[in-house]
Structures are given as C-alpha cells and as structure tokens.
Amino acid sequence: MFSFRILAAAFLLAGLTLAADGTAIEQTARLVEAKAAQAPKGQDVEFRLMAAQMLRPHNPALAQKFVDASLRELRAHKELATPAARGALAALAPTEAAAMFPPPPATASTAGARPVPPAELAAIQTKMGQMRKLPTDEDRARLVLEIVADIRALPPAMSKVGPISGLANLVTEGDLGKEALNAVASTLALALRENPGSPAFNYVELAKLIRYEHLTPLPADPSLDAATALLVLHDEVVQASGFTLTALDGKTYTLDGLRGKVVLLNFWATWCPPCRREMPDMEKLYQRFSSKGLVVLAVSDEKRETVEEFLAKQNYTFPVLLDAGRTVNTAFGIEGIPNSFLFDRNGKLVAQSIDMRTERQFLEMFKAAGLE
User: Fold this and answer.
1) 10 Å Cβ neighbour count for 31?
2) Which of 101, 138, 140, 207 is found 20 to 30 A from 38 (Cα to Cα)?
3) Same domain, 254 and 362
4) Is 0.70 surpassed by the pTM of this model?
C-alpha cells in the first residue's frame, strides 16, 4: 500500500498539487495519479485524461490539472500520444490538441470494402451474434464458455483483445453466472498481458467486471491498479454530484430530497433492448418494495414525445425522468445503458450495475441498502 508521502510526492511531480486535507475526491485523485504514473508510458496519459473527463462536470479546476499534466508530458514526448489520448485531448483541450497534433492534409478518399476478418475471428463474431437470440441465461452462459475457449485457441499472432472485449460487453447482460463472468475476465487479463500496449480503456473494462460484478480478484498489475483507482474516483464523483431531474408529470426529484428512501436510479432508452428487458423486473420490485421505502427512477435522455409514445404501450408505474441535456448522464459518466445506481436511506451510493439486471440480481443489490 502506498504511504501518503509517496502519493503526495507522485502528485507533485506531475504538477497536480492539492491540500493534504482535501476532499475525498481530491484524495482519490492523488491515488489515481500515483497509480497512473506506474502504468506504461502513453497509457499513463490516457488514464489522466480519463480522470479529467470524469472530473470536469463536478470539479473543472481539478480536471484541468490532469489535462495540464498530460499536455506537459505530451509536449515533451509527442510519441506517447496514443489515438485514445489524442481523442480525449481533442475533447478536453481542442485548441492545444489542434496545435500539437494538426490534422493530416486532406487526400482523396481511400475508403473501400471493409477487410474480411480471418476465419477464426469471423466464426467467433458469428457466435457472439447469436447471444441475444438464445432463450435463457443458462444457454447464453454455455455459449460464452464456448466462445472463450475459441478465443483462447486463436493463433499467437492474432490479438485476443478485440474479440474478448466484445464478449465482455455481452456477458454482463443478465444473470449468466460467475463461471462465465470469471472466464471472460481472466481471458481479458490474459489478452492484455499478451498485448501490454493496449488502450487504458480495456483495463477499465476489466476493472469494471471485477469491481461491479464482484469477481475473483486478479494478480496485481500496474495498469489494472490504475483502472481500479479510476473507478473509485468515478464512484466518488457520482456520490458528490447527486441529481436534480424532472419527471414526465412535472415533479422534480433530487437525491437530497429522497433521504429516508432507498433509491434505484436507472439510465435507459426506448431503443435499448436490454433496457426494455429489465424494466418489467424493475416494475415488479417497485410494486413489492415501494411500501418499504424503495423509489425507482428511470432516466432517459430522449425527447419527451419519444418516451411518452413508448410508455403509452406499457404499464409501468415508477417515475420516468428526462435528462434531455444529458447533464446527469454526463455527471454520472454514463457511456452504456442500462446502468443503475443504488443509494441507501442516507443518500450513500452502495451498489451499481454496468448492464441489464434480472430480478434476482436487483435483489442482491438491494441487500447493500438493507432492503430485503
């Protein structure tokens, strides 16, 4: 474990000085910087810029410190600018990014037919395309294990990161069980060890599986440690941000105003199949636990007319809130849906999901808030 002195020194070296008695977010930001500094060069910049993106809605001054540190490093070593780092920098500091990395001169389009994947990858992609068509989670879990075996059997010259990352995005839809989840996580870890220059995002993907699906911890790895610290920072930003949103009926809801209630805040959209699949279970649980203090709030960033048209064909009774400007989506770092956050009666974030949940999985989450 790092001592506070080592953490502070690492932060100072990066130009990210903060008071020793700072907030929980500031303290965790020091941890993120210390862990990022131990990640491979280039990847460390990606982690810092991801931290800046998380922090900007809540603490823009602290976010800018991460951006400034990244700019200093990239000015000294432009070769460290990965595609992911350039993309993040263009969003966070467009003027500086354009000056440092001017776009290449326009040329005639060379776009043509998409390259045909090797037969092994094509077969894996075909199997993954069948996942959502299978009738039960047990069927999907068996297919996941089969696909994992196929990925592990790929030739050494063929990177496993892409296919196992694609599978990681599917295995969290529903209740596929720990065996399937651990198989995907361990294979993703293997793929990243074989490809140490992979984007920081892939390590965050792995860290999410471990942290939010409660999987068996993996051996220590500097990049995974940095990704895990980034998730801790994300959770603290969510906690500090809270929310203020208006429902379709005009009623305004805030996290502070719901103290004494257990709050399930669910981000969804009408076009999202996994979102639509979990909503009946959310309604069932709302009916069962609302008398015990459960509040279910479903947040959509779509237009009112789109949401109302969808709900007119349903029988959901929990409040549906609108976030058309994506203010809360941005503050909570929502990148994929469905995504649910559970707050206890004191307004503390105690559990969250990174994908669709079943009734059983929601009940497991509720235990963290003392609701059974």
Assistant:
1) 20
2) 101
3) yes
4) yes
Q: Residues 171, 145: one domain? A: yes
Write the pLDDT tens digit of every residue in 121-173.
999 999 999 999 999 999 999 999 999 999 999 999 899 999 999 999 999 99
> Which residue range is the domain that position 276 belongs to?
242-367
* Nearby residues of 137 by Cβ (< 8 Å), 6 or more positions away: 174, 175, 176, 177, 358
Same domain, 12 and 50: yes
Same domain, yes or no: 264 and 149: no
Q: Which of 229, 242, 215, 310 is nearest to 50 (CA)?
A: 229
Q: Do residue 246 and residue 363 come from a single domain?
A: yes
Last residue of a domain, one of 46, 69, 100: 100
Mapped onto helix, strand or coil, the DSSP state of residue 156 is coil
Would you tell me how many other CB atoms lie within 10 Å of the CB of residue 203? Answer: 26
Q: What is the C-alpha to C-alpha distance for residues 148 and 128, in angstroms, rounded to an integer?
A: 11
Please report whether residue 345 resides in a domain. Answer: yes
| DSSP secondary structure letter of residue 57 | T
How many CA atoms does the CB half-sphere of 283 hold within 13 Å?
12
Share of the chain above pLDDT 90, in %: 84
